[in-house]
Amino acid sequence: MICWRHGRTAWNAEKRFQGQTDIPLDDTGLAQARRAAALLATLRPDAIVASDLRRAADTAGFLAEHTGLTVEYDKGLRERFGGSWEGLTNSEIRARWPEENARMDIPDGEDLSAVGERVRDAILRALPRVPDHGLLVVVGHGAALRAGINAMIGLLPEQRQALGPLGNCSWSVLGPHRTGGWRLLEHNAASLPEERVLGDDR
Question: How far apart are alpha carbons 112 and 144 in whole angstroms?
Fold first, then answer.
């Protein structure tokens, strides 16, 4: 499966916490989504599932145009709810909640472990649409996808920072492990994975 973050928005450029505020792609984000969709289409995905927030839905739409696939929307893939942080810049959040910001602990926001669980559950709901050895593209948001990846590969909460952030319109590749479960094959990529990455080593 490929976990693909949406293109840039004006709030991304301004370093504002978006959360579940429904912000559209800006011109740069639209161009990013078009470029990435053309690349990902060459991998011939079998299914696309996306957050219903506009920035992710529109990003997924470009891939649907290239592939002829229908996007399935799942609210479980929405970004982490940010409570009173939504709309504030990084510097504003640091100034008002320095300790909470250091832990990414939003006082009136969504627990990050809960985000990971709901994203994982959304992915598991979508996987039956994909044939054996097929490819699912999951289109979502930076914090939510990273939390979902952590849940999929079994990282403990205290290890959640082991994965770096996902850039706008970048993606990560996960594959099933021979012994069960999932493993991370590629992270924060913006170019096509090599065949050896999508396959399994021996």
Answer: 8
Tell me the CA end-to-end span of the chain in Å, nearest whole number. 19
Task: Choose the catalytic residue: 14, 65, 66, 79.
Answer: 79
The DSSP 8-state label assigned to residue 16 in this structure reads B
Name the active-site residue from 6, 86, 110, 141.
Answer: 6
Angle at 55 between CA 49 and CA 59, to 5 degrees: 55
* Full-model pTM: 0.93
Ordered mean pLDDT values, 10 residues apiece, the chain (202 residues): 98 98 98 97 97 98 98 98 98 97 94 96 97 96 96 87 92 90 93 61 48
Sheet holding 171-176, edge to edge: 71-73, 47-50, 136-140, 2-5, 171-176, 182-189
141 is known as an active-site residue: no
Structure tokens given for 130:
């994909």
| Alpha-carbon dihedral angle through residues 141, 165, 84, 14, given to the nearest 10 degrees | -90
